[in-house]
Every structure is written in structure tokens, then in C-alpha cells.
């Protein structure tokens, strides 16, 4: 982009940055400098990353290697590298003359499921990978996280509209999928439409609570999260209430447990009826 506009839309990096600063995400001076450095590398080096992709970290490593070894050495090493199946970390290691480490699976926990799904689909369009499996191998994402992210992105539009402008974490996404599978699409969408028809400020936790049919009560702050322990995933319901109202609540877990069990039994029964009807 920088070189295509050089001499036409801008005369130098400073003028280009004035225009690029309006882009999202914003482009810093360092980002632009690295991008120019990568663009000046031999084509044989850049083509190694056609499938693995050149990310911000990749650009930093490549610029560093260029300073360390020089363009000629990198081009010579590139001639002997078959990039198929390698991550960008491994390709960089080969260019540096090192033995590439085995691929480490890691989850980009900071990335929301919707963003992860969008990144995956962009990679499909750009030809970086052709399946969930190859995307997991080349990017380092856990395949299970990728599968869940794509599933969340394919939830009915009424559901996704509820979270526009909000942060949807991986845990939230998994909760949505479990509720969706438990109560079925029709009921899930119906509950979402109830909220869309009566817009108000709600947190992500409050939205999920409503979808679970845990109605908001005045003065009660309810949160729902997942907890993993010993290979088991559990829903955890947390709520707080003003001390003045505490005497109206059942504080004993023995009193509360039967109600929770009954609610879960109702969900299972409803799901079983839908399965038979289908």
C-alpha cells in the first residue's frame, strides 16, 4: 500500500502515516517501517509465507534477520526451504539457520470467538489454509477453540445482534452453544427477540442470564460463567443482593439445590420432546 501511493498520495513515510492513522487498527510508525522492510526482502523469501502469513511479529523477525544475515543469505537459504506445512515461526527458524521447533498448539485466548472465526474465514479466502485442521496446524490455534468459534459465528443472527458492541469471550461463546443445544433454536431465538423488542442496557452476563430464562430481578446482580476442573466443565451462577433483602432469599444450598435440579430436568425434558417431535 505504501509503495503504491508513494509519489501519488504521499511523498514520504510521515505523510503516509497521517493518512494511515485513520485506519483500523491504527498503523504506527514502527508497523510501517517493518512493512517496508519486509517488502524490500527478495521475493523468494516473502513467498515462503504465502500460506503461513506475515503477521506483525513475523515482520519484526524478518526485519531482524535481514539485518543479521543480509538479503543475499536469506534468498540463498529460501531456495532450499519447502514451506508447506510449516508455521511462520518454523520458516523464520530455517531462514535463521536453526532447526525448527515442533509446532506448539496454543490458544489465542485474547481473541473473541467472533474475531477468531472471522480471521479463519479470511484465511480461507486468502488461501492460507483450506480447512479447520490445516488452520489449526498453521496458526497454532487449538482446533477445538476454532470449531467452537465458527459454531458461535453461525448462531442465528438474532442471537449475535444481542452482542453487537460487546466483548464476547470464549467462555461466553461456549455457554451460548450449550444453551442453544439444550433448548433448541426456536426457543433460543424467541428469547433473543424478547430482548431485541425491549432494548435496554445489559451486560454480556445479563444477556446470557436472560437467554437461560434467569430473569433479572431488581437489586440482584447475576453472573454466569464456566469453570473447568478435573476434566469437567460446570456452569457457575454467582449473584449478589443488598443485605436488606437477604432475609427474602433461601440461603441454604440444600434448599436451593432442588430448584436448580428441577430447572435442569425441565430443560432435558423439553429437549427430549423436541427430539421425539423432530
Word description of this protein:
By secondary structure, the protein is mainly α. The protein has 15 helices and 2 strands. The longest helix is centred in the C-terminal third of the chain and has 25 residues, at 253-277.
Task: Outline the secondary-structure elements.
Layout: H1 2-5, H2 13-20, H3 29-39, H4 43-46, H5 56-69, H6 71-78, H7 88-95, H8 113-126, H9 132-139, H10 143-153, H11 157-161, H12 170-183, H13 185-197, H14 204-211, E1 220-229, E2 232-241, H15 253-277
Antiparallel strand pairs: 1-2
Which outline best applies?
elongated
How much of the sequence lies in strands comes to 5-15%
The end-to-end span amounts to 53 Å
Classify the secondary structure makeup into a structural class: mainly alpha
Radius of gyration: 25 Å
How many runs of DSSP E, i.e. beta strands? 2
Tell me the series of helices and strands, N- to C-terminal: HHHHHHHHHHHHHHEEH
Amino acid at each position: 500500500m505504501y509503495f503504491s501511493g508513494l509519489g501519488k498520495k504521499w511523498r514520504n513515510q510521515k505523510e503516509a502515516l497521517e493518512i494511515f492513522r485513520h485506519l483500523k487498527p491504527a498503523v504506527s510508525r514502527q508497523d510501517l517501517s517493518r512493512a517496508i522492510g519486509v517488502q524490500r526482502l527478495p521475493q523468494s523469501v516473502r513467498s515462503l509465507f504465502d500460506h503461513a502469513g506475515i503477521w506483525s511479529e513475523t515482520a519484526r523477525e524478518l526485519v531482524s534477520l535481514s539485518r543479521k544475515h543480509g538479503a543475499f543469505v536469506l534468498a540463498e537459504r529460501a531456495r532450499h526451504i519447502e514451506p508447506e506445512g510449516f508455521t511462520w515461526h518454523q520458516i523464520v527458524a530455517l531462514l535463521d539457520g536453526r532447526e525448527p521447533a515442533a509446532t506448539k498448539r496454543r490458544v489465542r485466548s485474547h481473541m473473541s470467538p467472533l474475531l477468531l472465526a472471522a480471521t479463519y474465514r479470511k484465511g480461507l479466502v486468502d488461501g492460507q489454509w483450506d480447512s479447520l485442521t490445516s488452520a489449526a496446524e498453521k496458526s497454532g490455534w487449538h482446533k477445538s477453540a476454532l470449531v467452537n468459534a465458527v459454531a458461535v459465528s453461525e448462531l442465528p443472527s438474532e442471537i449475535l445482534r444481542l452482542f453487537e458492541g460487546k466483548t464476547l469471550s470464549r467462555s461466553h461463546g461456549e455457554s451460548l452453544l450449550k444453551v442453544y443445544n439444550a433448548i433448541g433454536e426456536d426457543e433460543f431465538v424467541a428469547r433473543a427477540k424478547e430482548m431485541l423488542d425491549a432494548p435496554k442496557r445489559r451486560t454480556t452476563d445479563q444477556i446470557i442470564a436472560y437467554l437461560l430464562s434467569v430473569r433479572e430481578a431488581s437489586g440482584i446482580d447475576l453472573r454466569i460463567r464456566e469453570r473447568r476442573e478435573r476434566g469437567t466443565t460446570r456452569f457457575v451462577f454467582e449473584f449478589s443482593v443488598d443485605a436488606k433483602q437477604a432475609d427474602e432469599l433461601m440461603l441454604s444450598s440444600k434448599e436451593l439445590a432442588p430448584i436448580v435440579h428441577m430447572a435442569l430436568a425441565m430443560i432435558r425434558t423439553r429437549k427430549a420432546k423436541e427430539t421425539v417431535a423432530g
